[in-house]
Amino acid sequence: MRNATFILLALLALPLFGQEQPVNQEAASATVAESSVKTWFDPAMKLTWRYEVLDDNSAKIVGVGEFKEKFEKLTVPSVIDGHPVTTLGFAAFKGAHNSMDYSKNSALDARLIVCIPTSVTTIEEGTFHNTDSRPSNVLTSRTLVELAPGNEHFTLEGRFFLISKEGVLLHVYLPFNCLFVEIPDGVVRIGAHVLE
Fold it and tell me: 91, 130 in Cβ contact below 8 A?
């Protein structure tokens, strides 16, 4: 009887071993996405940019890597490895504040200053988001954005509000002494992670 029970259990288990195991789609797409990320060392800034090449052969900045030196202002390149930089991705500047040289910086009380070139036409919602799990969003709210002269894809209202041409509020710079903000006219939507 014992042998019959063992054989019956083994036969019932056979279909389980023959089936394909379900694939974790999130893990699979994360692996594919991560494999498409390239790096480029910027000799002017002395740091490594992480980027993806988009379908139109332009580059999307997805992060910053190793810093060789401190900087006063993080200037996004207009071209990376022959690809025009057109897009800034989610949390693209995470960790960059660690290499800013505050001794040379007199721009208000910014933790990070980012200068965006005219080639950038798309800034994704959450580009300046910190993504760290901590109670305050100091990095996000104290990143000061500057637009290169001639950038017509975005506007800076009062130096504090970065707004897309479509009226989406993409970033708000909040100095220490700022207790509240009044959203400028023309804003039709507040982007994700802007006021967190």
Answer: yes
